[in-house]
Amino acid sequence: MKVIRNLALLTLVCALAAAPAAALDYTYTGHDTNVHTENVFVNVNDYLPWRSGGSARAMGMAGAYTAIGDDLAAIEYNPAGLANVKHLQVSMLGVMSRNTELGATSDFEKKQKWETDPSFAAAAFKLWRITAGVAMRRPHFDNVYQSFGAIQNNVRAPDGYVMQYDRFSDRIDVNNLKTYTVSAALDMGHLAVGANFNAIDGTVFRYVRGRVSSREGTGFNSQFNSEDRADFSGYTGDLGALAKFGFLKLGFSAKNMLGNVKVTQDYLWRDDFAVGAGNFWVYDPGATEKTYNRFAPTYTGGVGLDFGKLLLLDVDYEWVNIKDREAALVRAGVETRIIPFLPIRAGFQSDVKNSTNFNNKEATSVFLGTGLKIWVVSVDGSLTLAQLRYGREGKNVTGAVSAGIGF
User: Fold this and answer.
1) Rounded to whole angstroms, how far apart are CA atoms 83 and 85?
2) How far apart (Å, rounded) are the C-alpha atoms in residues 327 and 318?
3) What is the DSSP letter of 277?
4) For residues 195 and 197, what is the distance between their CA atoms, to the nearest angstrom?
5) What is the full DSSP assignment across 47-59?
6) What is the pLDDT of residues 344-354, one digit of tens each?
7) Alpha-carbon distance 268 to 285, whole Å?
8) Terminal Cα-to-Cα distance of the chain (whole angstroms)
9) What single string gives the DSSP state of each residue in 83-108?
10) Could you tell me whether strands 288-292 and 222-245 are parallel, antiparallel, or unpaired per DSSP bridges?
């Protein structure tokens, strides 16, 4: 799931963090040995919106799928697209990642490993004009590891103390977070409508770590380490519509239009910049809890052109309203089948409100994808141009593979 990737944990940790989700007054002794009282902002909303990716086909088109989605990935992008299921479909998506992160507080070395995570599994059945579907979805985040040629100074500890680093990793673990979805769509000819009911349960862990290779005059490497845990439980609801006028298709989806989601979040910061190697200054504000009735409403409009197997185009504009922070994405995707059973896809996604985020990731991504469709079986794969380059350089890389059966 490309997800909007402007992730931050605390407004006190990073100047680019978004609006607070919960607040807590906390008194502590800081790096300067003075007693501080701060209103701590714990930011749950930065995990949103969640995306599983739906299918490698949709991901290969950069998620530009609101107006042309005609398979189970429509559950992710626009539930009205389920009306295009012919009879029965079953599909599964897996995301494969080579992740790199810095070690824990007692380990300065980077660690790298491959992981394969099931991100989406779904089935749908159509009877007359009504399609019913079920899905298990798990969001996907691109983890970050960066090594800088010069020391960076743009992250602060919760008391305002400047952290230095020339190695940085930001890892998000969503293995314990799942969304179970029940969907339905009604085909009314030129118009289709659909809805999702989403039950959310599980935990997100985030680990942000930084190291500076050497500190002049100290003889040791310094480090900071933050750990963020958020437990989610509740439900949300989505709506979608799809209009067809010959080769022209118009799609609209409104996600998280209703719901009730309880979030409990805990945060821990540690660094040894002021007190010496192995002696960590610890900041632990304790857990916060909040219940959301509107869990990051997300609105997407799409225009598609469907010329059959020759050419398929889609352009989407997505707006996310997260308290006083707004995010907007433009996505465009294309699919062609010059060889009928071998589709080729490309797409791009751009964050038009934010050029970069705090860990210097680019806001525009170019996607590539291909597949193989033989009779009722289809297999697809996708990745980005940046991931191709990172793979050759030995950095983090992520790719997606999905398979489905449709009758």
Assistant:
1) 6
2) 8
3) T
4) 7
5) G-S----S-HHHH
6) 999 999 887 65
7) 7
8) 26
9) GG--SEEEEEEEEEEEEEEE--TT--
10) unpaired
How is residue 307 written in tokens?
A: 């010329």
Whether the CB-CB separation of 224 and 273 falls below 8 Å is answered with: yes
| DSSP one-letter code for 308 | T
Contact 237, 196 (CB under 8 A): yes
Residue 161 DSSP class:
P
How far is Cα 144 from Cα 301, in angstroms, rounded to an integer? 30
Per the listing, tokens 């942000």 go with 208
Q: Give dist(CA 175, CA 120) in Å, integer.
A: 12
The DSSP code for 76 is H
Written as one letter, the residue type at 390 is Y
| Residue tagged 């673990």 (tokens) | 173
304/334 Cα distance (integer angstroms): 10
* CA-angle at 127, arms to 126 and 132, nearest 5°: 45
Q: Measure the CA–CA gap between 311 and 337, rounded to whole angstroms.
A: 7
- Beta strands 397-406 and 88-102 are antiparallel
Distance from C-alpha of 142 to C-alpha of 99, rounded to nearest angstrom: 9
What is the C-alpha to C-alpha distance for residues 7 and 334, in angstroms, rounded to an integer?
A: 28
Q: What mean pLDDT do residues 192-205 have?
A: 95
Segment (H or E) for 9 = none
- Strands 288-292 and 178-187, by their bridges, are unpaired
Phi–psi pair at 394, nearest 5 degrees: 80, 15
From residue 183, alpha-carbon distances to 204, 380, 397 in Å are 25, 23, 32
* Fold that domain 22-406 belongs to in CATH: Porin (2.40.160)
pTM reported for the whole predicted model: 0.86
User: Which tokens belong to 179?
Assistant: 């969304």
Asked if residues 66 and 252 have their Cβ atoms less than 8 Å apart, the reply is yes
d(Cα 24, Cα 11) in Å, to the nearest integer? Answer: 13
Tokens of residue 22, six digits: 């919960």
Output DSSP code: residue 337: E
- Distance (Å, whole) CA 1 – CA 119: 8
Query: What's the pLDDT at 394?
Result: 65
Q: Count the neighbouring beta carbons within 10 Å of the beta carbon of residue 246.
A: 8
Domain spans of the chain, in order of start: 22-406
What was the pLDDT predicted at 20?
31
pLDDT at 356 (0 to 100): 36
